[in-house]
Amino acid sequence: MTRRPVRAVFLLALSLFLVAACSGPSVRFIPDGGSYTLPQAERKALEVDLGRVKQMPSSQAEAQRRLALAALRRQGPEGSAAADLLTSRFPTKSSDVPAYVEVAKVDNKDALLVVDAVPGANGLLSSRRLWVFDRRTGDVILSTRMR
């Protein structure tokens, strides 16, 4: 008789863990990234794995964006500054979901390299957009949409 409640509690805990693991944002944050030229940054953006976000319908983009920005804010001062920059630069109802954020140097400037998952022709967040921001001014150095 004691095995049944233990098994039920274990299955419930496992289910809750799996739901939490699969529903959270999949933003990857690199606080001390590399040094790139603009063409290298573009190649890097094409290599970034968009994670499970790329399988999400674009109708979930706003909610996932909020989760990703909240996750960035939990990454310390650098992550919080990145989230603040992304929040100040874009409307709340943006369909771009940060999947990869790297504090880097681009063409010898302190930069923030951001790869967003964006809606593709298939209705999923399967395409990407690269943003390169000047960390000092917040100005856009580069913005390009990719496959």
Give a description of the structure.
With 147 residues, the protein is of the alpha/beta class. It has one domain (26-146). 39% of the residues lie in helices and 27% in strands. It is built from 4 helices and 6 strands; from the N terminus they run αββαααββββ. The chain has helices at residues 3-23, 38-47, 61-73, 76-89; strands at residues 28-30, 35-36, 97-106, 109-118, 127-134, 140-146. Strands 1, 2, 3, 4, 5 and 6 form a 6-stranded mixed beta sheet that branches. Strand 4 (109-118) and strand 5 form a beta hairpin. Helix 3 (61-73) runs antiparallel to helix 4. The longest helix is centred in the N-terminal third of the chain and has 21 residues, at 3-23. The radius of gyration is 18 Å and the shape is globular. Mean pLDDT is 86; it is low at 8-23.
Secondary structure layout plus pairing:
Layout: H1 3-23, E1 28-30, E2 35-36, H2 38-47, H3 61-73, H4 76-89, E3 97-106, E4 109-118, E5 127-134, E6 140-146
Parallel strand pairs: 1-3, 2-3
Antiparallel strand pairs: 3-4, 4-5, 5-6
Helix pairs in contact: 3-4
Task: Give the gist of this structure.
By secondary structure, the chain is of the alpha/beta class. It contains four helices and six strands, in the order H-E-E-H-H-H-E-E-E-E.
